[in-house]
Amino acid sequence: MKYLNACLLMFLLFVFSCVSPEKALMDGSYPTAFRSSVRQIKHGKNMEKNLRVLNISAHQLVEQSIADNTLLLQSNNLQDWIKAEKSTCKLRNKLQKANRLTSGAVQDQFIRLDSFYIGVKRKIVQFYFQTGTKKMALYEKTRIKTYAREAYPYFDRALKQGGTYFYPDLRTHLQEALAKGIIYYTGEEHTVGESRFLKPLPKGANFELDCHINIMSENVNYDYTEYEKTQEFTKKILVNTIVTRDTAAKEINTKCEYETLSATVTTKEITIVASVFTTVQIDNISGQCPLNSVSFYVNDVDVTEEIEIDGDEEAVPDCIKEKDANVFCIEMDLRSAVNSEIDDRLNDIFHIE
Full-prediction pTM beyond 0.85? Predict the structure, then answer.
């Protein structure tokens, strides 16, 4: 059934790709007419006729796009505006490529859609900018840094939407929101580090400290669980060959002598659990620090084997002997793993948006 559906889909694609631009235009299938005429023009076929189809279909697509997206812009939902922006941008890019291909044959349609597109952008950017500005006004009124941090992503989104086209000083607003939203701390800088809104208090700073951070981690604790099992191994090895010959030195009999080697292998399976308990103590000095004191426990586990051979080692298969591991190295790997997890947890704790 899947094979038949795939074949049907390929057939339909083939049929539609074969529809002439003029036929698609007459049927009111403007996207197909547009695509087909562009394809024909690329191959230099029926240029006059295909340019006419391209021009008409482009006009119809632009008008339909503007009508549909104008309805979306009448919504109070930002996501509808973003949907309109993406839809308009997609058609705008197609028109731009077709315009370059034809040396400006659809320039009028492109200019009309581009003007509408700029209007959509303006509406979205204006929303972001005005929301950010309102947040900063609250900061100026209250001096609460949270408002500056809330303003930052709105200015940032406006910037990513090309907002400097409408607000040339947008970057200044972004940097101001960043500077006024920073939480300054004292503590273990090498452990806490810094992020966008969390930075160590500069030496000689003449502004207020927000918080002091103290991180306390216990030494890594190792717990061991052991399980033993024994296995018996034997192996016959050739130790001598006796050849009997007749008076003419011709070999008449060969006798092989074997020795059986044996060994007992005791395998000790060791489960090692490495754990660390960490406490982060936050002293909120300015009342502006959003961080909270917290304690957490991290652990990691590994399983290894130690073997002890009693008897002839040659009787033991290599795959068994290779299992013998270095417990000290495993402990070091576990220590590294739990310390890495602690760092990840601390990064999450000290991430301020």
Answer: no
Q: Output the tens digit of pLDDT for each of the chain's 353 residues.
A: 555 455 454 444 444 455 789 999 999 999 999 999 999 999 998 899 999 999 999 999 999 999 999 999 999 999 999 999 999 999 999 999 999 999 999 999 999 999 999 999 999 999 999 999 999 999 999 999 999 999 999 999 999 999 999 999 999 999 999 999 999 999 876 677 778 999 999 988 888 899 999 999 999 999 999 888 888 888 888 878 877 777 676 767 778 888 888 888 888 888 999 999 999 999 999 999 999 999 999 999 998 888 888 888 887 787 776 665 677 888 899 999 999 999 999 989 998 88
Query: Is the CB of residue 268 less than 8 Å from the CB of residue 325?
Result: no
Of the candidates 110, 122, 105, which has an alpha carbon nearest to the alpha carbon of residue 51?
105
If you search the block for the tokens 């909270």, which residue do you land on?
292
The helix/strand/coil state of 246 is: coil
Side chain identity, residue 24: A
Query: Is the Cβ–Cβ distance between 125 and 158 less than 8 Å?
Result: yes
Considering just the CA atoms, what is the radius of gyration of the chain in Å?
38
Handedness of CA 98, 99, 100, 102 (dihedral sign): positive
User: How far apart are alpha carbons 12 and 155 in whole angstroms?
Assistant: 47
Query: Any residues with CB less than 8 A from the CB of 47 and at least 6 apart, and which?
Result: 41
Q: Identity (one letter) of the amino acid at 323?
A: K
| Residue 25, token pair as written in the block | 């235009």
d(CA 161, CA 115): 16
- As a whole number of angstroms, the longest Cα–Cα distance in the chain is 121
| Three-class SS state of 260 | strand
Residue 150 CA to residue 353 CA, distance in Å, equals 8
Cα–Cα distances in angstroms (integers) from residue 162 to residues 86, 114, 118, 165, 218, in the given order:
14, 14, 10, 6, 50
How far from the centroid of its chain's Cα atoms is residue 286's Cα? 36
Q: Which burial class, exposed, middle or buried, applies to 97 when counting CB atoms under 10 A from its CB (0-12, 13-18, 19+)?
A: exposed
Length of the chain: 353
